[in-house]
Amino acid sequence: MKRLFKLFTILGMLLLVVSCGSLSVKDRMTSTAKSVRDVFRDPNRYNNVSVTFVTTQGDINFFLYPEAAPLTVANFINLAKRGYYDNTKFFRQVDNFMIQGGDPTGTGTGGPGYTIPDEIVEWLDFYQQGMLAMANAGPNTGGSQYFLTVAPADWLNGLHTIFGEVKSEGDFIKLRKLEMGDVVKEVKISDNGDLILSLYKDQVEGWNTILDQEYPNLKKYPIKDATTEEINAYREELDRIYTKEKEKDESTFEYPITKAIRGIFNKVGGYTPRESVISN
Asked: For the chain, does the N or the C end have fewer beta carbons within 10 angstroms?
């Protein structure tokens, strides 16, 4: 969603260049370049968190969505910061569908020793490819295992928590190259991910108590206390995001690319997954 928003905004800016006939070409290009730069200065300071999977196929970057799945993102960030995902392998792959990782045992049966609840929102779905989502064994059984989609998978809507999306076409090309057995050398989180941990410090520390028992050799990662100013600023940012999403829902807005992908995939692709639910 974040990728598409920026893409459509840039296209709109380029159309504006053509339509502003009263300005010189140089002035129009200068104005548009400034507007494009402003697009990439994301107004969301706290919810603009990203992750880099350092893999044997190269670095693959994703946006994270704490505004949609805060506990899932906090859990993922904590596991990454503690080195839980370091040198883990992708242990399951379904061609033209997804690849799954996040299990230190490499068997598909491992987990952190606790579960987290589902966090499903209507404005994130599997109609587009390149989504980062939690594997589960049924409702509210997420843990550490995740999967990355390489094609639309709308039958998963409402069944799995989506908490990230691939950043760029270049990242998606590397994502498609991943194979079962490829290694995640490290999972890097952007600096603003620390605030998400601070906001859910009590919950994260509870998870860490269990992690320390299950995996005593994991790295320690201190969690600071969030300040009152940070908490208030975060709430204000969420209010702004939720207001935009509510307005979009009330206007029955649908991304044109999402609609096109769904139509092509369902009517022409004829693909049926081997399993309807990604399990852990």
From this structure: N
Residue 82 annotated to the active site: no
Is 78 catalytic? The answer is no
Is residue 147 among the annotated active site residues? yes
Residue 280 among the catalytic residues: no
What is d(CA 17, CA 132) in angstroms, rounded to the nearest whole number?
Answer: 36
- Rounded to whole angstroms, how far apart are CA atoms 136 and 116? 10
Q: Per the residue annotation, which of 53, 76, 91, 97 is the catalytic one?
A: 97
**What Cα–Cα distance (Å) separates residue 277 from each residue in 39, 104, 107, 206, 252?**
36, 21, 17, 28, 28
Task: List the one residue out of 197, 167, 250 whose CA is nearest residue 76.
Answer: 197
3-state secondary structure of 35: helix
DSSP character at residue 230: H
Cβ–Cβ < 8 Å for 13, 32: yes
Tokens 């459509």 belong to 8
* Length of the chain in terms of residues written: 280
- Active site (annotated) includes residue 15: no
Q: Which of 63, 91, 147, 265 is catalytic?
A: 147
Whether 232 sits among the annotated catalytic residues: the reply is no
Is 97 a residue of the active site? yes
pLDDT tens digits, 143-201: 999 999 999 999 999 999 999 999 999 999 999 999 999 999 999 999 999 999 999 99
